[in-house]
Amino acid sequence: MKKQISLSKSVYEICIQNPEVIEIMKNLGFESITNPGMLNTAGRFMTISKGAAMKNISMDKIKEEFAKKGYEIIED
Known about the structure:
Blueprint (H helix, E strand, L loop, with lengths): L2 E4 L4 H7 L3 H8 L7 H5 L7 H8 L3 H10 L2 E4 L2
Parallel strand pairs: 1-2
Helix pairs in contact: 2-5
């Protein structure tokens, strides 16, 4: 069974529940996610969708990378 990631949750919530997500997101271009200060501040209100829009990273690419690692993105 795939692990599920909800797009309505903050990046902080997702990373606390699934620490391996930090590496996936870093590899996608979200380099600052490895900085605990950024994760604990901006990460508390930032969602994956908002971050993707800011960094011009397609959601299709994000979904593809998460799927490779056994995750399913839930758009709720």
